[in-house]
Design goal:
The chain is mainly α. It is about 75% helix and about 0% strand.
Amino acid sequence: MNLELYVFYLFSLLLLYSSINVIISNNAVKSAIHLVFSFFFSAVLWLILNAEFLSVILILVYVGAVMVLFLFVVMMLDINVTAVREGFVKYFSVGLTVFISMAGLLILFFKRDFDNSENNVLNEIKVVSDDNTENLGYVLYTEYLLAFEISAIILLLGIISAITLTHKKNTINKYQEPGEQIEVKREDRVKILKDKDLQ
């Protein structure tokens, strides 16, 4: 066994450990931190597979941006941990069914499209240079441009939804209405007192 295989097994086990802790942790912040570690270990596995661009993007985008926003939302929301624990037991069977279904579909997909090394989906991709990043950019912006635009719209909707859910109107501060200020007359603000009114 070479060094690359040892590194693969090591980071695969670490990825499994951190991924399980994301699910079973009873604190949302701890789950988010374990998710950061999961992204980092996944990035190392991408690097072993010679996917340098995806590895760097996984660290820069997900760890550097998405997880910061996720932690920000977790800190803002008042999450009832007891209700979450009750829901975990209640929906465990449904989650297990979805997990088994998704795992089976992924296994079938990879076995069908990548099992035969001479006739798999990777051979159909047009190679424009020796650089993986350039090849990925060419495929992404030519053959999969529509899917790329749809994913951008979904991310935009996610941002708008998160802002809408977390936005609370502050009732303590007083706001001025310019329309009402313009309509105010002199008699509404100024009262002239005469000598007899002062006595």
